[in-house]
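One thing: mind reviewing this one?
=====
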Amino acid sequence: MTLRLGDCPLTRRKTPFICKNLIADFAMNKTTITKTKILAKFLPATLLFCAPALALDDVEHKYADNEGVKIHYAATGKGPLIVFIHGFPDFWYSWHHQMEGLKDDCRVVALDTRGYNKTDKPERQEDYDMRLLAQDVATVIKAEGVEKAIIVGHDWGGAIAWNFAMAMPQMTDKLIIVNLPHPKGIARELANNPEQQTNSQYARDFQQPGSHTKLSAQLLARFVAWDDDSREKYTNAFENSSFNSMMNYYRQNYPREPYKENKAEMPRVSVPVLQFHGLKDSALHHHGLNRTWEWIDKDYTLITIPDADHWAHHDAADLVTDTIRWWLKMRQ
């Protein structure tokens, strides 16, 4: 397979077209990869000129224990607790702009989810069941010595956040989601939307045995990083991560063919919800947002961002951070 610049199913940035064809007949051809440069000029202007980076010297690195699984998280600031949960491929640093922008008013913590960076990496697929991923978040909240938190999630972190809010409403103060439709919306689109079915080929590939052997830290870092400094941080984090763990999220939790709409009753979300969605995200079709309000009992605020991709909190960092700050202040 030859890596080429083009539209990626997880983001339409000019990055290697790695997701859709990442698993199929992939060989790590270093010469090809070297020729595929991820240049800042290809990234949205909102990404390059956004909020100041987090001062890493101010960040505490702590651990919480969930029945023997150590969960690493980064923390700074004082005030009401906000817990940030990243997606694939990522680690706690994904939220550095939001942490910097909110730390003066809140206690902001961002965890490495199971399998990533400094968090433990259980080997079994069932160790990545959504129930356990949600318990990891609860463990971090308890480690911070409070009863509830504002929960923020992106991608798989968004899935964890939705499920956490439904399963543990007593620990959820408010819910903020970035580029991840409600689980019922995703199931509906997979069952009925041919475009979503096509764009989910990467997920079906990831579910296959051995898919993790096709990944590398360098490849994933080039996919998500935006400059040389972030690429180094991501490479180091992914070298300390488990690719098999990353794939286990898909094997254990992502719907499998034949896709069926989820008609079962799910717990309703009983807290206010703020949702962002970059409309250039083709991995998670924006049609999945339809009817979300029918599954929420409190107020629901939806912000669509036409020029943002899958990582809306990177591509429109100022907009996301400032909106979160405004939205929280309106509900004090």
